[in-house]
Amino acid sequence: MSQTFPIFKREFLGYFRSPVAYVFLVVFLVASVGLAFFLSGFYKANVASMESYFFWHPWLFLFLVPAAGMRLWSEERRSGTIELLFTLPVTTLEGVMGKFLAAWAFLTLAILLSFPLPLTLAYLGDPDWGVIANSYLGSILMAGAYLAVCSFMSALTKNQVVSFVLSVLVCFVLSLLGFSVFTDFLSGYLHLPVFLVDVISNFGFTTHFDAFSKGIIDPKDVMFFLSLMGFSLFLNVVVLER
Amino acid sequence: MIEVKGLVKTYGAKRAVDGISFEVRRGDILGFLGPNGAGKSTTMKMITGFLRPDAGQALVDGIDVVADPVAVKRKLGYLPESAPSYPEMTVEEFLGFIAEVRGFRATDARRAQVDRAIALTHLAPVRRQTIETLSKGYRQRVGFAQALLHDPPALVLDEPTDGLDPNQKNEVRTLIKGMAAQKAVILSTHILEEVEAICTRVIIISRGRVVADETPAQLQARQPGARLDAIFRSLTQSDL
Ligand SMILES: Nc1ncnc2c1ncn2[C@@H]1O[C@H](COP(=O)(O)OP(=O)(O)OP(=O)(O)O)[C@@H](O)[C@H]1O
Ligand SMILES: [Mg+2]
Q1: Residues A30-71: pLDDT tens digits?
Q2: Neighboring chain B residues of A3 at a CB cutoff of 8 Å
């Protein structure tokens, strides 16, 4: 895996060589903070909690993570640099990991840039730091899972628009699975047995993220996100080696 | 050094490479000729491990590309057809990245390799410029610098002089000729004088098959007194 680092470094610094990164960071912050303030009344609620901020993350990620991930492999394919990269002494796995980790680090940065929010809360009230830390952890893990799916999708095409649309679609389905409206529909209208509904909703992002935002770290949730990342990246490698 | 045995590659119903075999030793400069679409680039992509052959084998220094691609890639310098590079990086950053992936991790070693490659390909005036702002010829030189960077024992160059001005073409030829004593070089080209000028051997392929494999002198002897392009045309008739 030693070749992962130079690729990681090039990719991560690469974000800041173009204005796209700064635009992305600004849009991410404005959208995440804006949703919390204007749709959820961050201050009006009068509680020192970040719940209304994290509440929107699964939906925000649905569009912003594909926006960050759509170019990962499709751009390499379109510009032909994939030929350069894979005739250097690197394995496909090293290439996939280097690019994925760089994009994940970039998303983590975007998420952590909201740090003035908890600091303000601490100034105004007495927030539960444990819950906030867990929510951040959950959000970062969820972003990684979304991103791994996007990375896989972007390896399927040299067209970034196709890559974006595919990513949003797949991520949407994965979010929907855990959403209560959807599970109610499955059990209420389709009369699926409860255990089956549970199995299906278990593949949803929101199901696993909710626990984090309540301050609970369940190893099962961590494992869910990590295995989804592992599985998507595995498919990513397979597609590139084809 | 480079050994190719019965390579085959099919795209859909089209057989781009149809059983190509040859061998390149150290000290050889092999000119790889053929009409557009003959399968030159495809063959090179298989030798360098970018494409997996449908049949046949490519060996570099006795190592099978399919069996141990990373070991082969360490020994090869490869200039792909359109000299792809990351456009938002500067020349220096880009070559620094290549050096790092090539195993020059210490700052000094990396800088030494980058400086050497920049000097060889005359990139000094643009070393701090981003690649997207370079002219085509300079971008081509960046690709060439990248291939030479680790001083590899085998070079695979897909149209290395494409887009260069006459002075630079000459420069690149002299450079290749100068290095060739310790290296095995394969270069594809559409410029027949280039073959006469530097190649020690010529392979002409047509529709994915080898139609001539000899020295430039032997090629000339096929039709004494004729121009090389006339000989080329008669050998690749089936492609027209
Ligand atoms: N990705 C691809 N999909 C389908 N067909 C391809 C692909 N790449 C190459 N081909 C076909 O394979 C054949 C050989 O192409 P190749 O690029 O190897 O030719 P070449 O000898 O390098 O030609 P040129 O002198 O124009 O560079 C061509 O008929 C081309 O259309
Ligand atoms: Mg070609």
Answers
A1: 988 888 877 776 666 666 677 778 888 888 899 999 999 999
A2: 101
Q: Which of B173, B85, B79, B78 is nearest to B129 (CA)?
A: B85
CATH architecture of B2-238: 3-Layer(aba) Sandwich (3.40)
Any chain B CB within 8 A of the CB of A83?
yes
The total number of structural domains in chain A stands at 1
Residues B70, A84: C-beta atoms closer than 8 Å: no
For A173-210, what is each residue's pLDDT tens digit? 888 776 767 777 777 777 777 777 777 777 777 778 88
Q: Starting at the earlier edge strand, list the strands of the sheet with B209-214.
A: B76-79, B154-158, B184-188, B29-33, B201-206, B209-214
Task: Tell me the whole-structure pTM to 2 decimals.
Answer: 0.91
Q: Please indicate whether residue B39, judged by its CB atom, sits closer than 6 Å to ligand 1.
A: yes
Q: Which of B42, B35, B33, B34 is nearest to B14 (CA)?
A: B42
Q: How far apart (Å, rounded) are the C-alpha atoms in residues A67 and B69?
A: 33
B82 vs A: CB within 8 A: yes
Taken in order A242, A11, A24, A58, the sign of the CA dihedral is positive
B86/A90 CB distance under 8 A? no
Question: Chain B residue closest to A5 (CA)?
Answer: B101
Q: What angle do CA A44, A130, A123 make, to 5 degrees?
A: 45
Per-domain boundaries in chain B? 2-238
Residue A21 lies in a domain: yes
Q: Kindly state whether residue A117 falls inside one of the protein's structural domains.
A: yes
CA angle A98, B71, B141 (to 5 degrees): 70
A contacts of B101 (beta carbons < 8 Å): 3, 6-7, 88-90
Radius of gyration of chain B (CA): 18
Residue indicated by tokens 């199995």: A199
In this structure, are residues B176 and B169 in contact, taking their beta carbons and an 8 Å threshold? no
Distance B38 CA to ligand 1 centre (A): 7
3-state secondary structure B132-197: HHCCHHHHHHHHHHHHHCCCCCEEEEECCCCCCCHHHHHHHHHHHHHHHHHCEEEEECCCHHHHHH
- Token pair, residue A141, equals 């893990």
- Structural domain boundaries, residue A23: 4-173+229-241
Asked if residue A188 is part of any domain, the answer here is no
Q: B40 in ligand 1 pocket by Cβ < 6 Å?
A: yes
So what's the pLDDT on residue B180? 85
Does A193 fall in a domain? no
